[in-house]
Amino acid sequence: MRLSSRTALAAAAVACATTLAACGSGMSDTGDDTLSVVASTNVWGSIAQAVAGDRVEVRSLITEPSADPHSYEASPLDAAAISDASLVVYNGGGYDHFVDDILDSAGDDRPAVVEAFALHESGEHSDLHAGHDHGTTGSDEHDTTEEHDRSADAPDAHGHEGHDHSGVNEHVWYDLATADAVAHAIAEQLSELDPEGAAVYESNAAAFHENLHYVSDVVEGVSKNHGGAPIAQTETIGYYLVLGAGLDDRTPTDFTNAIENGTDPSPAAIATTRQLLLDDQVRVLIYNPQTEDRISREIRSAAESSGIPVVEVFETLPEGVDYIQWQSATAESLAAALDSAS
Fold first, then answer.
1. Can you list the domains of the chain with their CATH numbers?
2. Per-residue H/E/C for 237-273
3. Superkingdom, according to UniProt (predicted)?
4. pTM of the complete model
5. How many CA atoms lie within 13 A of 271 on its CB side?
């Protein structure tokens, strides 16, 4: 995850939350009986809205398609929204740490929460197969989620070293099974808060599950048709997509870790990554446009000059699409890119 100098503003936001609520923040006072759901990003907000349906309006704090959630600085209004919410849905795992800061400040008055990363780590996955091992084997000592997922620092099925990221990969919205678990957890929480709407929430979560199967089938198809195909990434936003599709990430760990942390990779790591593309050692480059810099743009140029397809992955929803549409388009783009490179 990318760290920034947001500590002072985050602290100010937390300190101002109670004051704003007391003296008027500009937010409408909907009353004690009205549910309010706040999501850290529109990715989790989209899933929450799919479950909430017409009964509850979900507010997402980070919605700008060009935004980088790693470096997001919470405003006092954001802090007030989280503190006053009935339910907060967020990524966790240090990805949207400002939410943890605000929740911690609430003490016993903290709202109900659904944390995606905690669900992922607990192994509470659905029967969706994308984002899991697909029968490949890794080192058992790294299997911390009942064989649902390899640890981020485990060797992959093809013998290449995985990515450290301090022992975790927090980008769990690309793990479809975790997204499904989040939807069902939201339904459970909303049913407790609004028993009269329980049947609606449960039905909507079931519909979300069924819609996820299309995306899962596309990813399963990539695994079936291109399993083991070598790819490169500028950073490991799409780690769980790559894992679910059974692809072989050849990118040097030093390169992806540096890009992920907002630092410059070593000259050796840059040269090795560029050579993968110039020598046609990989079939696809997975690229995050939201955090591009001079180095990542150079890597993309190397891929394009070699005729290697570039598949873009994002950290927030593009404008005008929901989570299912977004993940469907991403999986289809990956499948098409690998088909064209065959």
1. 9-117 (3.40.50.1980), 140-175+210-341 (3.40.50.1980)
2. HHHHHHHHCCCEECCCHHHHHHHHCCCCCCHHHHHHH
3. Bacteria
4. 0.81
5. 3
